[in-house]
Amino acid sequence: MRTVATTKPARRSTLSEPVWVRWLLIGAALSFLGLFLLIPLAAVFVEAFRKGVGAYFAAFRDPAALAAIKLTLLVAAVAVPLNCVFGLAASWAIAKFNFIGKHLLITLIDLPFAVSPVISGLIYILLYGLNGWFGPWLAEHDIQIIFAVPGIVLATLFVTFPFVAREVIPLMQAQGAEDEEAAVTLGASGWQTFFRVTLPNVKWAVLYGVILCNARAMGEFGAVSVVSGHIRGKTNTLPLHVEILYNEYNFVAAFAAASLLAILALATLALKSFVEWRTHRTAPNPLEIPYEGGPLA
Amino acid sequence: MKIRFKQPSVLPGFGLTFGFTLFYLGLIVLLPLAALFWTSAGMGWSDFYSTVSSPRVVAAYRLSFGAAAVAACVNAVFGFIVAWSLVRYSFPGRRIVDAMVDLPFALPTAVSGIALTTIYSRNGWIGRLLEPLGIQAAFSPLGVTIALTFIGLPFVVRTLQPAFEDLDAETEEAAASLGASRWQTLRRVILPAVLPSLLTGFALAFARALGEYGSVVFISGNMPMRTEIAPLLIVSRLEQYDTVGATAIAAVMLTISFVILLAINLIQWRASKQSRIA
């Protein structure tokens, strides 16, 4: 990425700080970020390659590692499209129509961001666990959800639930319904209107939401850890695999697996910056910050 | 006049999309959350109280709240400086630094957890420097605070950046032309204007830190009464098949999260009301 000089006009001295204060502040900011962002990121790669390139790649020949990668991809492949369809449906209902209780609905969609990841897993145990609401019925019909792949998918769906919706809803609301009303009045069907008019207008917001949703789906740890049961080669996602290797003191393999997730994170940041640049989003809306375990207004 | 649930529109698809939204929301979010409150309500008050007031649980809540508060304060101070530098100054690499601020929520928490533990453990890059000073970072409450600072880092920066960008240069000019020093302008003009954003960022970072699990479990060492956070206690109760106990601890945490959510909404609502009047 190129560094672009800012186009801001030079401020008069009364409107800015003395040069030494400026550099002091920039220095403090960069030291803080270096300490908390750069060093941990560097540590992942340094530890992964500590015993050389051969040991690094050997970590991925472990069948358990391959199974973990496969499961992580599978979970994301199910969760991301489902939440994407939901996000588009919810946006259409909320942005194109006026109805009572709209604000409540938007608040409820954001709710999963206010829930701790551990609690996000726990609530599914209360529903589908052996002693849960549907536990006895599921056991009778020999269906396993908790400590199996369906539980992992459900917990992932919960933690990534709002991502696409909260990107697309505000944009669709800002765009209004005039374009669609014109299309329908001219004889287009509902689906034609959606695919030819609405979707092209919101495609970047959808992409933005999908990028964030995918990063979280592949990286989720707390919620998945509670429902997975940690069965090696069966219900271990990549983040859980990292934990197991680390707790076995197999640090090179743990950091090798972690480096894959770190590359995913860097790719996510790069893609995110690209979409922001394409759509001329200057700074992200703070209330759109997706995160684990805390409320979003 | 009859009050309609929905205003008429020529567009089709309301029934389908609204119905699907409610169904999916209910299935994935509302039903499971209801199960949590239903289960803890079924416990009875005395059972509930004795679970959440046992010394180990209280110690975990205290650590979670204390470390989250300290971490959010650190982030408030440094987040202010970072946001200010990114908005007001130009320096080489500014764009990359700006993009990197989001790393803590792009990086899976398990990865940040093991990375921080490695750095701050006794023979790690930073732990090695702290050891002669008699400071133990990993496997202590300090380690928990470091992890929570890491994961809360983007919030203050990202809430303050737009606030700094929206600041009117004219107000600052007016203050300067009326003889205010730069420091006075900062304290009397800039700080009050960005205070709602700063508070929102603080609350977001605090709330996030309160529920955090992945990045803390590795660095904390998980010693009961000393470095055990509340989410970890929920997990250990579940591992002992004490689902009800886990649910009680979780219900308290969830209620607090919702209260913080409400507080953030209130700050935002008041700030937007004020800016409309101004």
Features:
heterodimer, A: 297 residues, mainly alpha, MetI-like fold, 2 domains, 13 helices, 0% strand, disordered C terminus, B: 278 residues
Describe this structure in words.
- The complex is a heterodimer of chains A (297) and B (278).
- With 297 residues, chain A is mainly α.
- Chain A has 2 domains: 16-48; 51-288, MetI-like fold, CATH 1.10.3720.10.
- Chain A contains 13 helices and no strands.
- In chain A, helix 3 packs across helix 7 and helix 5 packs parallel to helix 11.
- Chain A is globular and about 65 Å long.
- Chain A starts with 18 loop residues before the first helix and ends in a 19-residue tail after the last helix.
- Chain B is mostly helical.
- Chain B has a single domain (44-277), classed as MetI-like (MetI-like fold).
- In chain B, 77% of the residues lie in helices and 0% in strands.
- Chain B contains 13 helices and no strands.
- In chain B, helix 6 (109-120) crosses helix 8 (141-166) and helix 9 crosses helix 10 (182-211).
- The longest helix of chain B has 35 residues, at 243-277.
- The radius of gyration of chain B is 23 Å and the shape is globular.
- The two termini of chain B are 36 Å apart.
- The model of chain B has no long low-confidence stretch (mean pLDDT 92).
